[in-house]
Amino acid sequence: MRFDIITVLPGLLDSPFAHSILQRAQKKGIAEIYVHNLREYSTHKQKSVDDYPYGGGSGMVMTIEPFAVCIEKLKSERTYNEVIFMSPDGETLNQQIANQMSSLQNVMVLCGHYKGIDQRIRDLYVTREISIGDYVLSGGELAAAVLVDAVVRLIPGVLSDETSALSDSFQDGLLDAPLYTRPADWKGHRVPDILLSGNTPEIEKWRFEQAVERTRQRRPDLLEE
Ligand code: ADE
Description:
This protein is α/β, with parallel strands linked by helices. The protein folds into two domains: 2-152, SPOUT methyltransferase, trefoil knot domain (Alpha/beta knot, 3-Layer(aba) Sandwich); 169-224, Orthogonal Bundle (Trp Operon Repressor, Chain A). Helices cover 35% and strands 19% of the residues. It is built from nine helices and ten strands. It has helices at residues 20-27, 64-77, 95-101, 119-124, 141-152, 163-166, 193-196, 200-218, 220-224, and strands spanning 2-7, 32-37, 50-51, 61-62, 82-92, 106-111, 116-117, 128-131, 185-186, 189-190. The protein has a five-stranded parallel β-sheet with strand order 2-1-6-5-8. The chain has a three-stranded mixed β-sheet with strand order 3-4-7. Helix 3 links the parallel strand 5 and strand 6. The relative contact order is 0.15. Bound molecules: adenine. Adenine is lined by residues 86-88, 131-133, 135-137, 140, 143.
């Protein structure tokens, strides 16, 4: 799977993609993540990418030209399944969306800044708008990193133990059961006996009950769906 991320702050995305699972996925050749500096596509002398809003108001608006040049260039090289704009106006990212996206080939991700982007970019190029939650970030970059992480870890072969993504919280519509590791007794705080029993069917039953109970207490909305 290939991601092309368009941003005015490429440096902000260096670290998230250079560690852990995202790094491993790229080394294995399962994921390719390219970050494009929008400023390089500006036709202005000063390489500006924003301008004052028509109709007045505070804040600057990102102009269509650099986005259009960059998007058209990428589109001339391959076909994109989605051109996503990270925005608090979008549909809220969830595990189902991440699952759907993990089967795509090529995805472009646009990161906005300042007050926002010219509506014509959204009208002409964007196929999907995604938010990572009901709060406003300074730009779309951190949201793009969250999206890429959530999607890439679901691509088969990325996680060493593939079942570990299948048992994640949300993957089956439930939160995860509590986890324990050694020591079995830490200063009198003991691991539940069932987990030490070696009785796999009973352990699975316990985990399911715990997951349902945790979901009922913390996220009853998930059980209603
Ligand atoms: N850009 C700014 N805030 C955002 C959010 N909550 N989700 C996605 N992109 C954003």
